[in-house]
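User: Sequence for Putative ABC transport system ATP-binding protein below. Tokens please.
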Amino acid sequence: MPLSSQASALALDVRNLRFRWTPEQPLLCFPDIQLAAGEHLFIHGPSGTGKSTFLSLLAGMLSPDSGTIQMLGNDIHQARAGARDRFRADHVGVIFQQFNLVPYLTAEANVTLPCRLSARRRAATVTSPTDEAHRLLAALTIPADHWHRKVTRLSIGQQQRVAAARALIGSPELILADEPTSALDSDNRDRFLDLLLTLAEERNSSVLFVSHDRTLAPHFHHQIALQGTSS
Ligand SMILES: Nc1ncnc2c1ncn2[C@@H]1O[C@H](COP(=O)(O)OP(=O)(O)OP(=O)(O)O)[C@@H](O)[C@H]1O
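Assistant: Structure tokens for Putative ABC transport system ATP-binding protein:
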């Protein structure tokens, strides 16, 4: 059965999630989460507690050993891989720790990429993917003369903002962000977070943001600590 978005469902409902990379490694235990539409959640934990692993499980890129993940009312790990990929393309924007931009594409082409992979995201742009990419790049303070440069010719902070624009385009219901501010000084980091969360709010996108840096917590509606492992 294809996955669908159910208007009344939570953006994210995570219960009893556990994962072990290999039999020799400790079991990673994750907190239960219920995230409503438009809410912003901050998850913090020291290095190695499993923040990136958690996001990979939520994004459907890893399968849990136990527990459930419901997104918009769908149990994503009950679906076949193809349906899961389609659901992610349609409903989830991801900002990776290393940005994962396509190096040979321009900033604009990187931002419009989700609209090429998802008719739903394309249809959700107000006029066209290119117009929305320009609006997002301008809102995220990327100068217009940089929009047609290859992303590798942009600064790290600019690349990070391009990655944010790519996650926001087409108004996905959920944005997952993995410590994307670690390369920035504190002023730029706060400015980036304010922009990201304001743009997410305009789109009613829920945000789940992980970082080791607890000083970021006041930007968010809710916060949870990741405890890490159990034997
Ligand atoms: N691909 C992998 N194969 C095996 N073990 C892994 C892999 N990726 C992560 N781990 C292990 O899983 C645990 C959690 O790692 P993870 O990267 O999720 O933590 P993190 O909190 O995101 O760390 P950081 O803040 O340093 O990015 C660590 O013990 C790590 O060594």
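The first helix runs from residue 51 to 58.
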